[in-house]
Amino acid sequence: MEGEDLVEAGVTAGLEPVDVLSAGETVDPDLLAGVSTLAHPPRVIAVFRRDGLPRGQRDVTLALWRVVDPGNVGTLLRAADAFGAGVAFSEGCADPTGPKALRASAGAVFRVPTCAFDEAGGLRVALVPRGGSSIRDLPADRPLILLLGAEREGLPDDLVTQSHKVTIDQPGAAESLNVAMAGAIALYEASQPLRSRPSA
User: What does pTM read for this prediction?
Assistant: First the structure.
């Protein structure tokens, strides 16, 4: 983890760093800059164990199929964090613990449970660019698994065929949405039935 904010997010989540490198305190600033992936080297870099990250799924889980862009993976983790969801990863997805994904997640990687794509159980709903029912009519079933494919290739036909299909209504001229934007919209819509239930 590079930078004070990400390191603090890990510690706040209850993870103990394996090591902490602080510029001018435990390591020479030039050495720290040499291992940093940032344009402007941070003052702190910490190492955490992957085994300490949360595992599992939640009532709503984003299931990502071969989403290779680390920025999108990190942004989807951040969106899942905002809406109390989990994230499942297929083989071929970008590493959620890679530098770019970590920065895009803004610390969400410490709070969002993750699992393998095939481990996520529940009603599968495939987000397709056209031909599905409106995203506003998402099923209220829980657990709910929202399937998102890579932007160029989308979801495999067999996954789409076996799933309930929804489409995000787009009145504008854009052909499609960025996968991270689509995931955030789907999570927002999935949160609506839960938020509208009367309190006990």
Answer: 0.91
